[in-house]
Amino acid sequence: VQAAPQQVAEDKFVFDLPDYENINHVVVFMLGTIPFPEGMGGSVYFCYPDQSGMAVWQLLGFVTNEKPSAIFKISGLKSGKGSQHPFGAMNLPQTPTVAQIGISVELLENLAQQTPVANAAVSSVDSFTEFTQKMLDNFYNFASSFAVTQAQMTPNPSEAFIPANVVLKW
């Protein structure tokens, strides 16, 4: 989780994505502590270095106070063409193995008129459900790897224990 953006202009922020070649999806979400100003939202851009090291920016979509999160597939974007973006005039440091997510605060009317790159479509509910199921399966497998029998437990009054069957029933 990256919660410390670099502010590059009054209304523009970037987050570094190290080792981006191994990232398939990016989740962008607002923490809920600071909302966008009334009538504003954030365009979400993906930037990666092309073969010559030049920054290529692509519009992924947007987030707003009413839609504070989105999942974007970026695995197919790393060879596409760039698009018009508000970060062009800025001299942002770019290294070959670091990509960036850019957030540009803009009017809601402008956000609705923008066209994101086609293969970055926000994941559908079905794939989100699939992701959630896999995440919970992995959580259960991880938590189960620490399982011990009641006879093996060392009493520790300051530590809480949750029976595995409670997680399974849930």
From TrEMBL:
Residues 126-170 form the Hikeshi-like C-terminal domain. GO terms for biological process: cellular response to heat; protein import into nucleus. Pfam families: Hikeshi-like_C, Hikeshi-like_N. One of its GO terms (cellular component) is nucleus. Residues 1-120 form the Hikeshi-like N-terminal domain. InterPro entries: Hikeshi-like_C, Hikeshi-like_N, OPI10. It is found in: Cytoplasm; Cytoplasm, Cytosol; Nucleus. GO terms for molecular function: Hsp70 protein binding; nuclear import signal receptor activity. The keyword Iron does not apply. The keyword Ribonucleoprotein does not apply. Its main location: cytoplasm. Keywords: Cytoplasm, Nucleus, Protein transport, Transport. Forms an asymmetric homodimer; required for binding and nuclear import of HSP70 proteins. Interacts with ATP-bound HSP70 proteins. Acts as a specific nuclear import carrier for HSP70 proteins following heat-shock stress: acts by mediating the nucleoporin-dependent translocation of ATP-bound HSP70 proteins into the nucleus. HSP70 proteins import is required to protect cells from heat shock damages. Does not translocate ADP-bound HSP70 proteins into the nucleus. Belongs to the OPI10 family. This is Protein Hikeshi.
